[in-house]
Amino acid sequence: MPTRARGTAIFSFCTDPSTLSDAAWLGCYLTTGKHMALYWSFGTVLLLLAITAPTALAFGFGGAAAARSRFLPLRWFGQAYIAIVRGVPDIAFFLFFVIALDQAFEYIRHRIKCPDWDQPVRQGNDFVVCAEAKLPLGNAAQWIHETYGFFLAVLTFSIVFGAFAANVLYGAMRAVPHAQLETAEAYGMTPRQTFRRVLVPQMWVYALPGLSNLWMVLIKATPLLFLLGVEDIVYWARELGGSKTPRFTDYPHGDWRMWYFFALLVFYLCFTRVSEIVLERLMVKLTYGQATLGGESQRKAAA
Amino acid sequence: MKQILLATAAFGLSASMAFAAAHSVVRLGTEGAYPPYNFINDAGDVDGFERELGDELCKRAELTCEWVTNEWDSIIPNLVSGNYDAIIAGMSITDERDEVIDFTSNYTQPDPSSYLALDGAEPDYAAGVFAAQAGTIQASHIAASGATLVEFATPDETVAAVRNGEADAVLADKAYLLPIAEEASDLSIVGDDVLIGGGIGMGIRESDTELKDKFSAAIDAMKADGSLNALIEKWLPGSATF
């Protein structure tokens, strides 16, 4: 019973790799089911980034808005979120928080779905909830388990990076010249209108350098995925690159981790370079018409 | 519809049926990086001694099983948290682990561990530098012996550490090191075998005695009819049988 159906060899001549020439051997080697899993995991990483970045930004925006709220408990909440999450080491967060998060979800479901349950949820070291409360259900297909794990990962990444983003946005909101806000007030705008129409549009230019930094760190942090039980590119590179004896594979080879990690290096460098170019363009766009040094030089160049 | 609901409610009352509901699918957690016990084959599936053993045990216990891989470091926390139902990952039965989880009957004899070093090397067992996978019985053995321990997350990295000179030798299960020593021209088994641990068993949550009993019964049945010995001889040649 395979955990998941992965394709068999793509080329028909791959039945006995030990007889093949180098090029054909490499062709077969690079298209094994295991390598397909590696290629898929690039998609996993990109998908994680695509979902996490906007979610973390939303968390950050919420955190920053809460931290400067005039309503005291909300302000405390925002400031506590920023301070606590930024202060906890990432690795501790990723090792323990996910299990705790999963247990919290299951506990809530347990209370709702099994009110008649008479055994304790904590039995020694064990965390036991009724079968209906398991997330995903114990008999769910493996891909559902994997998807659930992936979304736990997205949530964890979003909470961590959201706290950093919140701090950046909080700083950016304070960097908007006070005169702008006073002028808005003088025009009779309510605090909410001032926030929406004046503060938020102007803060991005101050936030972008910090946010672009965060984006780069987020890209590099994706190997932490494996701590969360998601098989990412670094996991597969390590697994595929390790030396293999003929007894357990049709494609024995020595320690090739260096080559696999070199490929990852190229991938990450290309990815960060593309990000830099996009972020630079975004910066130029955001600077337009702003009362900053960059905006001023744009105005002078145009004039 | 109502009848189905009533029937389900009635089912829920019976304890053994509750077991069936909780374990309609038994998820087996393994590491997938420790041949010949468990590894990921070319097709990307879990393979090895424990794959074949686990499938047979599930068949005998009439359970539907599913294989999942998990990193060694967090393999016990994820079991007690309920992310899978059993660990079948070459895990030796030790007192320390037994405090946290329960073990089924052992399905291998206490397996000798051995040292693997570069050809011609003579490591100093009392004061040398030795590699072992973190959280293994071998790691605690080295730590207790007074020699210097360097730990790695995966078995593969421990062998790489010997190759690049970071460690004088690696201490691991002999069944894992033997194929490596035979295939590699530059590495060989050195020194005497070390006997540690109480054999390998499946790790089960302490609260899950019913599942533990089922697997233990299946393991004992396989011991009795000799099929376990056949598997050991196939995958772990040279290891002690029952």
What does this structure look like?
The complex is a heterodimer of chains A (303) and B (242). Chain A is 68% helix and 1% strand. Chain A has 303 residues and is mainly alpha-helical. In chain A, strands 1-2 form a two-stranded antiparallel ribbon. The longest helix of chain A is centred in the N-terminal third of the chain and has 35 residues, at 33-67. Chain A is flat and about 80 Å long. Chain B is of the alpha/beta class. Chain B has 2 domains: 2-109 and 199-235, 3-Layer(aba) Sandwich (D-Maltodextrin-Binding Protein, domain 2); 112-195, Periplasmic binding protein-like II (D-Maltodextrin-Binding Protein, domain 2). In chain B, 40% of the residues lie in helices and 22% in strands. In chain B, the strands form 3 sheets. Chain B has a 5-stranded mixed beta sheet. In chain B, a hairpin with a 3-residue loop joins β2 and β3. The longest helix of chain B has 16 residues, at 209-224. Chain B is globular, with a radius of gyration of 20 Å. The model of chain B is unreliable at 4-17 (pLDDT under 50). Classes of the chains: A mainly alpha (303), B alpha/beta (242). Chains A and B meet through α2, α4 and β2 of A and α2, β4, β5, α4 and α7 of B.
